[in-house]
Amino acid sequence: MNIIVLIKQVPEIEKVRFDYEKGRLDRSSAGAVTNPFDLNALEAAVQIRERVGGVVTAISMGPMQAIESLRDALARGADRAILLSDERFAGADTLATAYTLAAAIKRLGKFDLVICGEKTVDGDTAQVGPEVAEFLGIPHAAYVEEILDVEKGWIIVRARMERSYYLMRLRLPALITVTKDINNPRLPSLKDKLRAMRMPIPVWNYTDLSEIADPKYFGLNGSPTRVIKVYTPISEKRKGQMISGSPKEVSQRILQILRENKILA
User: Fold this and answer.
1) Cα–Cα distance measured from residue 144 to residue 158, given in angstroms and rounded to the nearest whole number
2) Tens-digit pLDDT profile for residues 236-252
3) CA nearest to 6, candidates 102, 79, 95
4) CA 135, CA 218: separation in Å to the nearest integer?
5) In 26, 66, 129, 260, which residue has its Cα 20 to 30 A from 84's Cα atom?
6) What's the pLDDT band for 12 if we cut at 50, 70, 90?
7) For residues 6 and 59, is the Cβ–Cβ distance under 8 A?
8) Contact indicator for 63, 84 with CB cutoff of 8 Å
9) pLDDT averaged over every residue in the chain
């Protein structure tokens, strides 16, 4: 089984600062780590390969430093890794990102399953996985908490939808996004880390993917989303006041307050 895992390198979200003038995260203000949900996706892929055989390929889109996350993926069990990196990929919103990732998957050729983390901690949209599936024209299931079975041509999963569960049987090739509850990602050994450091990681650029897809949909030019303004919402603390007087005076004052705050017409 050929399994593809989408990996993203994200800033340490507890330390990163926000650039309000440019309307984006200042990624240089903090260190970078692998998106935690993508580690769950990788672990799910490796467990499937251990059960039925196959190859696990990790793909990431980002600057050259994202190779660090791909080497971590190799150390954790991926068989190979590919980095999509080019200045012309920069500024991509979720749609352009998904389009670029889908183009890379098409360039790889035949595949059976794509696994993504449910979301990234720096974007928190949960859009890229389903959008990749749409660009590939394959079925998908989001918020998968358990992979029940993988059989020839099918995968059966349990997905969380608010307070309910859905049992879904998807014909392969398919895409699933997984939650953190699906597994506990394994830790790589020193031997695995050293092995990963020696493994080659191809870098595909704008030209490589332009053979597969329309380049006008890459990066900022292919992104219909624009950030116009970013600000921190003002959060007011609870307020209280004492109302004294006769029961009639108190009730009239409460009624007045409710009307002033447009709670009552």
Assistant:
1) 6
2) 778 788 888 999 999 99
3) 102
4) 13
5) 26
6) confident
7) yes
8) no
9) 91
Model-wide pTM > 0.85: no
Q: Distance between CA atoms of 63 and 88, rounded to whole angstroms?
A: 11
Angstrom distance (rounded) from CA 170 to CA 139: 7
Amino acid sitting at position 250: V
SS3 call for 118: coil
Cα–Cα distance list, 189 to 5, 186, 197 (Å): 21, 9, 13
Task: Give CA torsion, residues 127, 128, 130, 131, to 10 deg.
Answer: 100
Question: d(Cα 150, Cα 51) in Å, to the nearest integer?
Answer: 9
Point out which residues pair with 24 in neighbouring strands. 19
Phi, psi of 57 (to 5 degrees): -115, 125
Instruction: Give me the domains of the chain, ranges plus CATH numbers.
Output: 2-222 (3.40.50.620)
- Please check whether residue 63 is in contact with residue 91, taking contact to mean a CB–CB distance below 8 angstroms: no
